[in-house]
Amino acid sequence: MSGTPGQAALAEIAFCEQVLAKGGATVLTETLRGVGQPESWTSYPEGEVFDPQSGAQWFYHSHHPAADEAEHGHFHCFVRPDGADGPIHHLCAVGVDPHGRLVRLFTVNQWVVGDDWLAAEPTVSLLPRFDVHMPQPNYLVNRWLTAVVAAHEPTIAGLIRARDAAIARHAPDADGDARASRALEVTAEHRFTDASAR
């Protein structure tokens, strides 16, 4: 495939969306297949998705969207570099609208996902490891999410670095730990305004 890795990943995003659309589906309908009414803050699919070869893992949080809120929910993306029993590190979250289209990428404070803390540069080095080749819940969903992270790797790397800077600036909680402060949830975000960049 010609072009840069980022261009190839953007092409894969479009390909996955086009194939899903042929069947009247989206990444969101396939992620929530069989779910009657998604519950807020419940992780989908049940048991999450983990690729034992790459250590990539993800789950989706469904929201009840407000009238003025474009985002339906978001995919939380992780890597377990030492396998299923090893530490888990959050890379980013991928927000989508009710049609499964990208809305934003963002990072969160540690308390939000309860992962094993890893500083920015070692976390950035894990981004290429996010590569999901699993049939559940849908292979195209897994390839789409893998391609989203690959296509926007420089942006996500910047968000991870901004995460650490935001936490360093933030006042600690009563126990002296800014990473546990509920006053800081989203640490950095990138919103998509140009559909062609998705």
Short note summarizing the structure:
Helix content is 31%, strand content 22%. It has 6 helices and 6 strands; from the N terminus they run ααβββββααααβ.
What does this structure look like?
The chain is of the alpha+beta class. The chain has one domain (5-193). The protein has six helices and six strands, in the order H-H-E-E-E-E-E-H-H-H-H-E. It has a six-stranded antiparallel sheet with strand order 1-2-3-4-5-6. A hairpin with a 5-residue loop joins strand 4 (89-96) and strand 5 (102-108). Helix 1 packs antiparallel against helix 5 (139-151). The two termini are 19 Å apart.
Low-pLDDT windows of residues: none
Structural class: alpha+beta
Q: Tell me the Rg in angstroms.
A: 16 Å
Subunit organisation of the chains: single chain
Give the rounded overall mean pLDDT.
Answer: 91
- The gross shape turns out to be globular
Main β sheet profile: 6 strands, antiparallel
Report the count of strand segments: 6
Give helix and strand order, one letter per element, not per position.
HHEEEEEHHHHE
Question: What proportion strand?
Answer: 15-25%
State the separation between the terminal residues, measured CA to CA: 19 Å
Instruction: List the domain count as a whole number.
Output: 1
Strand arrangement, largest sheet? 1-2-3-4-5-6
Relative helix content: 25-40%
The number of helical segments is 6
Task: List the topology elements.
Layout: H1 5-22, H2 27-31, E1 43-50, E2 56-62, E3 73-79, E4 89-96, E5 102-108, H3 110-113, H4 120-124, H5 139-151, H6 153-169, E6 186-191
Antiparallel strand pairs: 1-2, 2-3, 3-4, 4-5, 5-6
Helix pairs in contact: 1-5
